[in-house]
Write a structure and sequence with these properties.
The complex is a heterodimer. Chain A is mainly alpha-helical. Chain A contains 5 helices and no strands. The longest helix of chain A is centred in the middle third of the chain and has 26 residues. Chain B is globular, with a radius of gyration of 18 Å. Classes of the chains: A mainly alpha, B mainly alpha. The interface between A and B is medium-sized, with 20 and 30 residues.
Chain lengths: 85, 145
């Protein structure tokens, strides 16, 4: 393969690797933080039966009354977990 | 992993996003148990493939004509090509920031000379010649491997 052919092949291969959208990368970077916040709230619910019941009955209210202001992804994840239980 | 979903399995943007996120969650969950750094890339690629196949199977249930056996053979060929592309990508990372960013923007992000020039504060004509020089540098790096 000539130098020119190899250079063209390299350019072709690079084009095969599209960069993921920035928003997707940003969202992925948030995952560990979201997981940590969810895990913290879940551990509170596991040790406090009353808080757990409150969470199931009124998620937003239970969090607010405990001074927790979760971000939207945290709320979504908690809702999903409660619905799966 | 995005390339596997989009180029290898030709998933739509929505499905590719879901696979990307799911892989990230699983990688994050397993980070503590992944001891061998060299094995991580292969494991992530394997996981991405599996999740993409699940997606395709799900869409086949919804639209049975969308996936046939020959498609899977094509996918294997494309995935082999992606492996080759990843080797080039590894070489790209060794070129230094300027070349690496320029080639990434031009080939992977499909940005124009003007967009790249604006971002790097360089005239578009300079971008073209630098891309050419960086490609040559990359070729030499790939040949040396």
């Amino acid at each position: 393969m000539s130098d020119q052919d190899l250079t063209e092949r390299i350019a072709e291969l690079l084009r095969l690797l599209p960069a993921p959208p920035d928003a997707l990368v940003d969202a992925a970077k948030e995952i560990p933080k979201t997981r940590a916040e969810v895990d913290h709230i879940v551990s509170m619910a596991l040790t406090d039966v009353a808080f757990r019941a409150q969470l199931i009955a009124d998620l937003d209210g239970a969090l607010a009354s405990n001074g927790i202001k979760p971000r939207q992804p945290v709320l979504d994840e908690l809702r999903a977990r409660i619905n799966n239980d | 992993m995005y390339a596997i979903a989009v180029k290898g399995f030709r998933l739509g943007a929505h499905d590719a996003d879901d696979v990307f996120q799911e892989v990230f969650v699983r990688v994050y969950d397993r980070l503590g148990t992944l001891r061998n750094d060299d094995a991580i890339r292969a494991w992530i690629a394997q996981l991405t493939r599996r999740l993409c196949v699940d997606r395709l199977r799900a869409s086949r249930r919804e639209a049975p004509s969308e996936l046939v056996v020959s498609d899977l053979a094509d996918i294997d060929d494309l995935l082999a090509e992606l492996e080759e592309a990843m080797t080039v990508r590894d070489a790209l990372e060794t070129l230094g920031d300027m070349c690496s960013e320029m080639l990434d923007r031009f080939f992977c992000r499909d940005e124009s000379y003007k967009t790249i020039g604006d971002a790097l504060d360089l005239p578009p004509g300079t971008i073209a010649s630098r891309i050419s020089r960086c490609l040559t540098k990359l070729r030499l790096e790939v040949e040396g491997r």
